[in-house]
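Researcher: Good morning. I'm working through a list of sequences from a screen, and I'd like to move beyond sequence-only analysis. For each chain I'm collecting a predicted structure so we can compare shapes side by side. This is the next one on the list. No need for commentary yet; just the structure.
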Amino acid sequence: MSDMEKARWQSDLTLIVDAAKEAGAVAFGFFNQSPEVWWKNDDRSPVSAADFAANKTLETILRKARPDYGWLSEETDDDADRLSRETLFIIDPIDGTRAFLGGQKVWCVSVAVVHRGRPVAGVLYAPALEELYEAVEGGVALKNGVPFTVSVAGPEEMSRLAIGEDLLKTLPREFQERVTREKYIPSLAYRIAMVADGRLEGTFVKGNSHDWDLAAADLILACAGGGLVDLEGRAVVYNSVEVTHKVLCAGPAPRLGEFLAAFAGRRDS
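Model: Good morning. Structure tokens for this chain:
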């Protein structure tokens, strides 16, 4: 990566951090205030006035600052023009809307800059938790300004995984015996951030996640020493025609092979 690119992505990171903070403040103004809610026809998931307000804030700030970038957001109608852009913003104004509407604090604003299919700057802002995660390609992952890395369990330690009980039961018994299941975490982006900062050692992501759920968290995890990959061990590619993904695995780089092998060895139950 050239010095010019480093400077460009760092400038983009500063921009998206500021935008995420503003959008987070807007969303937080609706928190525990019973905002109006609608239901999406495609998957019957909720979207609220807070989602739309935060999305508008992000769109206003970011598109004005980088009019040549493409745009992909959960709460904006998809525009195929993004496919012609080398660089774009990928946005989830509130990742964890169900948690948000239920008064739980585990939700965040997710903003990424993606260049040629991979994230180069990313931020997750969880205003109810007062947590800000950020990363830029080639840099370190930061949480509230402090660097952090993934955690790797030792040979005698249990691995803390966010994984469904039904799926865990299908994995090899010797793998099950080394796992402690984490309770359900409603925001996928935040769950991956928990892998990045070492509170979890890994997670399996069910099929049908979207670019906007993943892009910012993917980069944060990578800069913390981890990886988000498909079951063949391949990195996620963003800004394709299809923005949904099959089953994925997130974890520390040294453990991904083991996690994928356990999944490959699963059995029906």
